[in-house]
Amino acid sequence: QVQLVETGGGWVQPGDSLRLSCSASGRSFSRYVVGWFRQAPGKEREFVAAIARNGQHTYYADSVKDRFTVSRDSAKITVYLQMNSLRPEDTATYYCAADSSLILSDYRRHMAYDYWGPGTQVTVSS
User: Fold this and answer.
1) d(CA 28, CA 31)
2) Each residue of 46-64: pLDDT tens digit?
3) Which of 37, 40, 65, 117 shows a CA-CA span of 20 to 30 A to 89?
4) How far apart are CA 113 and CA 2, in angstroms?
């Protein structure tokens, strides 16, 4: 029912920045928790960041805290992930996920989200 699309991935050098976008055409994220997850080759899918339904509360993995920022543009129906000071270990496929019924304790659990985008590749290499 909800179709998500991520954009903004690419190749950058260490220390550079990227901004990822997650959008659901024709829908608002006002009723949804939106999470960002990433998966590198040979590794488990891991939590990156999430934004609550009201857009005022955000949550981050320790590995990206103080470098990444998640925000919501309600007017443009888009959730952003601003990634600064990128490191090679940030290289992964990044996924946007959304769910309308999550409680706080589920925000970091990828299995709790019902809707997913196809992912966008982020490569950080010198």
Assistant:
1) 7
2) 999 999 988 889 999 999 9
3) 117
4) 12
Q: What are phi and psi of 59, to 5 degrees?
A: -140, 145
What are the tokens at 36?
Answer: 């960002």
Pairing status of strand 120-124 against strand 10-12:
parallel
What is the distance between the alpha carbons of residues 74 and 119, in angstroms, rounded to a whole number?
21
Q: How many residues does the chain have?
A: 126
Q: Is 88 exposed, middle or buried (0-12, 13-18, 19+ CB in 10 A)?
A: exposed
pLDDT-flagged residues of the chain (< 50): none
CA 36 to the chain's CA centroid: 2
User: Per-residue DSSP letters for 73-86?
Assistant: ETTTTEEEEEE-S-
Residue given tokens 């903004």 in the structure block: 8
State the DSSP code for 50: E
Question: At 60, phi and psi to the nearest 5?
Answer: -140, 150
Supply the DSSP symbol for 1.
Answer: -
- Which pair of structure tokens corresponds to residue 114? 């019902």
